[in-house]
Amino acid sequence: MPANSDIRRAADRAVTTTPWLKSRHSFSFGDHYEPNNTHHGLLVVNNDDVLAPQSGFDTHPHRDMEIVTWVLEGELTHQDSAGHHGVIYPGLAQRMSAGSGILHSEKNDSLTQPVHFVQMWVIPDESGIPPGYQQHEIGHIGSELVTIASGIPGRDAAITLHNRDAALHGARLQPGDTVTTPDAPYLHVFVPRGRVALDGTDELAEGDAARITDGGGSRLTATEPTELLIWEMHAKLGG
């Protein structure tokens, strides 16, 4: 099935920089608004964040959003108004359903180590659901795609999503390892670290992404140690 790949380079992302945060945005976010870059498929946020030690996001609100957080290095402490508390570290999948409304904070409590994480948002199938929280340790992630989060019926995953058309997969590849993207009308391939060749032609370096439509089965081959995050989506916003 032919696929169309829209390659988005790391250097072209909008960046929010403060004394304690460096956040790189794949889509419009906050003050960085681009009318032609608001989502791909069902994915509306893909933020690549580094928090300095002893810093973080103070308590703030969210509503009607499925928020998945994936930590690459360090530890991130989550606390919310529904009484959930958790420490997220590499290999632990976490999802917060903002639903009808929730307040939460995210902190780096380390005295010395930054925390590097990717936070991804998809809109749920239904608005106004009760807020929720889920985390689950995946453990070893290797050269095959592991389903981190999914709302697709019948699909096993570490954590669930309240969206029946979306799933998130991850892999950690060594040079020469190859994975094949799922078959879906909308795919978002993000390389938070490392480097891969896409179908033997386009190269995706650290921070690059490929927005793939009209096909699956693309081959990604690592040319250095690499971590991949791939969204499989069977619908798009607005229909």
UniProtKB/TrEMBL annotation:
Gene3D superfamilies, alphabetized: Jelly Rolls
InterPro entries per the UniProt record, alphabetical: Pirin, Pirin_N_dom, Quercetinase_C, RmlC-like_jellyroll, RmlC_Cupin_sf
Organism: Mycobacterium lentiflavum
Quercetin 2,3-dioxygenase C-terminal cupin domain segment(s): 154-233
Family membership noted in the UniProt record: Belongs to the pirin family.
Name of the protein in its database record: Pirin family protein
Organism lineage string: Bacteria, Bacillati, Actinomycetota, Actinomycetes, Mycobacteriales
A Pfam family assignment: Pirin_C_2
Alphabetized SUPFAM superfamilies for the sequence: RmlC-like cupins (SSF51182)
Domain Pirin N-terminal: 12-122
